[in-house]
Write a structure and sequence with these properties.
Blueprint lengths: L19 E4 L8 E8 L4 E4 L4 E6 L8 E6 L2 E2 L3 E4 L6 E8 L5 E6 L7 E2 L23 H5 L15
Antiparallel strand pairs: 1-2, 1-7, 2-3, 3-6, 4-5, 7-8, 8-9, 9-10
């Protein structure tokens, strides 16, 4: 696909990977699906199983050639997040709860003003955190060593 980078990038994204969205413009208008990938450099998203196009791939070393059906990116303005209560497309707003956590809420005409949950796929790390110390990791005894004392001024460099 010969997409070029967008001239004006979206700063605050309302849709994230794993969201249930409805396509509001294009050949798949009215259909809903899950966001598979977000391409921020192009202001586009790929919706699972939607906006299918035929792609001609030449045979090469290690792979077959032929005509394949692939999902093409859709501009982010052509999809809307589905309200978790009503199931209708809605605008997304930001709200801070009493404990200070930032959540997304559904907005617009006929929206339930309910909290849009964070997708489960974003909670799963693709690469697990290492549990064994590597050769470049700082040992814990050096990390916990106190090198500066504010009361006595010990550890302050001479300027």
């Amino acid at each position: 696909m010969g997409w070029k980078a967008a001239e004006k990038l979206i700063r605050h994204w309302k849709v994230v990977r794993g969201d249930n969205v409805m396509i509001i413009r294009g050949k798949d208008k009215g259909e809903s699906g899950t966001i598979k990938r977000v391409i921020r450099s192009q202001n586009r998203v790929i919706v699972e199983g939607k906006n299918l196009v035929k792609k001609h791939i030449k045979q090469g070393q290690g792979h077959e050639g032929g005509i394949f059906t692939v999902e093409a990116p859709i501009h982010a303005s052509n999809v809307q997040v589905l309200d978790p209560v009503t199931g209708k497309p809605c605008k997304v707003g930001i709200k801070y709860l009493e404990d200070g956590t930032k959540v997304r809420v559904s907005r617009g005409i006929g929206a339930s003003e309910s909290i849009i949950p964070r997708p489960e796929i974003l909670k799963i790390r693709t690469t697990p955190r290492p549990t064994v110390l590597g050769p470049k990791d700082t040992p814990m005894d050096l990390v916990l060593e106190k090198t500066y004392d504010a009361k006595t001024g010990r550890g302050m460099p001479e300027l």
